[in-house]
Design brief:
The protein has about 70 residues and is mostly helical. The chain has three helices and no strands.
Length: about 70
């Protein structure tokens, strides 16, 4: 559970979401655009599954057996 307290984990998660969704930080110039981009991400199943897989890959500890 220490990962959730680490700022590096959250920066990585934000990077994953931006990379998988094809967005850049500079795309978010207003709150309205941010809301539209979040809506576009949530409504695209391929993007949602890509984000889930990428987050799992960064969260999973390969030194332990099984899914953790």
């Amino acid at each position: 559970m220490k990962r959730y307290k680490n700022i590096g984990f959250w920066v990585g998660i934000i990077g994953i979401v931006l990379a998988v969704s094809g967005n850049q930080i500079s795309d978010f110039t207003s709150w309205h655009i941010l809301a539209l981009k979040i809506y576009e991400i949530v409504m695209n199943p391929a993007t949602v599954f890509g984000i889930i897989m990428a987050v799992y890959g960064s969260w999973n500890n390969p030194t332990n057996k099984g899914i953790n």
